[in-house]
């Protein structure tokens, strides 16, 4: 975002596209489906939907509101707004923890972005054509077992991210999202259609929407909340930074609703595309992070026109991953630019190399370092768990508590542009339901 003149978006549409570019990514397709599969299905999905509506929406609005008022990077914005309202400078920690979270997330996000790049190429050369489930799983397992392959693709993906951020051409990418996002939706619909034709769509529907509440426990609820934060790019100061580009006339709640609906629809479509393939082929829903990489190639490899559809799908997935990854690198780059004498290019290289190094540790946890465990988790899982289950909820909580309890209540209410009933609903949800929900889920999930 830093390279945009700090002018406001020409239109609400431009803003929605930029925010959706950050939100829609691997989280919707790769992470959502694997978390649903790992957590046993519908109970997770329903808790996730509740978190998106009751916690995600008010926190998204809060982050944008803070950004629009502060007009600076997350750390300075929080520090200045706190000072203006006679609050402690310690509120800047919300910004610091956001920058840290973005840095950590990008390290493993880039590894998966690399998988997506690799699968794009494999689709082009027809690797998946006519293969059965065992062969496809074997290909995936082979990739995981090879540190060199993983390193190569992780490096390629990070190089793309660094190149784009260093040149500050993110705006161009965001306008490309105008075309590519609908294309992604169309491809997902085709895959859902394939799932319907497979005869296992009913099972997938039941798996995703008919809850077995006995599967629910504190850990699953925390995972669902973490997924809500992750997928909406919350708790990283990123939406705060975006908010600083938001015109005064843009309605926060309706804009948040648009972005959230888009993000949620894409995630649900991904589930409806993937689980019929899982059931039709006797695969395991709890396959883990490899879920989309052992299901979708199987479908593409065996459907008419699969080569071209597979290529388009993985290309679009890679593109969506890139627009999200760019937004994940920005906070660190901006912080270095503002706090050191580094130029943009140097700051980008320094942050990118740091992220890349950490990503190398993450990818080694799939092979040579698979036995290196911390708290029972390998490095990849540790990075993912620590960010989505701890840093993001705490940062997001900080943002919403700051808006509802530290900013002037009248001005917040005026800014929302709601009717008086709407304001009351907002006050109940944003002041009590969302913060209490985050705290309860956080505490019970960790215990
Ligand atoms: N929301 C992105 C996704 O669902 O893939 C991931 C992400 C991007 C998370 C940017 C956080 C972020 F700041
Ligand atoms: Na998302």
Automatic annotation (TrEMBL):
Sequence intervals crossing the membrane: 12-30, 42-61, 90-112, 150-167, 179-201, 221-247, 259-283, 303-329, 349-370, 390-407, 428-446
UniProt-annotated location(s): Membrane
Entry-linked Pfam families: SNF (PF00209)
Keywords: Membrane, Transmembrane, Transmembrane helix, Transport
Membrane topology: Multi-pass membrane protein
Database matches in CDD domains: SLC6sbd_Tyt1-Like
InterPro entries: Na/ntran_symport (IPR000175), SNS_sf (IPR037272), YocR/YhdH-like (IPR047218)
UniProt-listed SUPFAM superfamilies: SNF-like (SSF161070)
GO cellular component terms listed in the entry, alphabetical order: membrane
This protein's name: Sodium-dependent transporter
Organism the protein comes from: Vreelandella andesensis
């Amino acid at each position: 975002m830093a390279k945009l003149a700090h002018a406001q978006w020409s239109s609400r549409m431009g803003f929605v596209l930029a925010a959706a570019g950050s939100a829609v990514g691997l989280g919707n397709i790769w992470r959502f489906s694997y978390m649903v599969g790992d957590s046993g299905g519908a109970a997770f999905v329903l808790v996730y939907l509740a978190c998106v509506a009751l916690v995600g929406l008010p926190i998204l609005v809060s982050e944008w509101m803070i950004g629009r008022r502060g007009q600076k990077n997350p750390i300075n914005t929080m520090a200045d707004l706190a000072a203006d309202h006679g609050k402690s400078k310690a509120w800047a920690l919300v910004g610091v923890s956001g920058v840290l979270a973005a840095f950590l997330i990008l390290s493993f996000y880039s590894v998966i972005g690399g998988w997506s790049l690799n699968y794009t190429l494999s689709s082009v050369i027809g690797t998946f054509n006519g293969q059965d489930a065992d062969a496809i799983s074997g290909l995936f397992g082979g990739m995981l077992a090879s540190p060199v392959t993983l390193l190569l693709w992780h490096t390629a993906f990070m190089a793309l991210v660094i190149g784009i951020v260093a040149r500050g051409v993110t705006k161009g990418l965001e306008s490309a999202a105008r075309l590519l996002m609908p294309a992604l939706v169309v491809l997902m619909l085709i895959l859902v259609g394939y799932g319907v034709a497979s005869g296992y769509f009913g099972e997938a529907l039941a798996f995703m929407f008919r809850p077995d509440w006995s599967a629910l426990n504190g850990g699953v609820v925390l995972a669902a909340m973490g997924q809500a934060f992750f997928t909406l790019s919350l708790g990283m100061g990123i939406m705060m930074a975006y908010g600083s580009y938001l015109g005064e006339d843009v309605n926060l709640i309706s804009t948040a609703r648009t972005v959230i609906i888009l993000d949620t629809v894409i995630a649900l479509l991904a589930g409806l595309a993937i689980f019929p393939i899982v059931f039709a082929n006797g695969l395991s829903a709890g396959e883990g992070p490899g879920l989309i990489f052992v299901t979708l190639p199987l479908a593409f490899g065996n459907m008419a026109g699969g080569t071209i559809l597979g290529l388009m799908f993985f290309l679009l997935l890679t593109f969506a991953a890139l627009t999200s990854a760019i937004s994940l690198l920005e906070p660190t780059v901006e912080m270095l630019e503002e706090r050191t004498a580094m130029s943009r290019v140097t700051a980008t290289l320094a942050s990118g190399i740091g992220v890349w190094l950490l990503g190398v540790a993450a990818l080694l946890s799939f092979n040579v370092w698979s036995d290196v465990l911390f708290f029972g988790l390998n490095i990849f899982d540790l990075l993912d768990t620590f960010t989505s289950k701890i840093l993001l909820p705490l940062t997001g909580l900080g943002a919403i508590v700051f808006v509802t309890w530290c900013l002037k209540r009248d001005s917040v209410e005026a800014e929302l542009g709601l009717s008086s009933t709407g304001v009351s609903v907002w006050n109940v949800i944003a002041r009590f339901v969302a913060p209490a929900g985050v705290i309860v889920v956080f505490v019970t999930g960790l215990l």
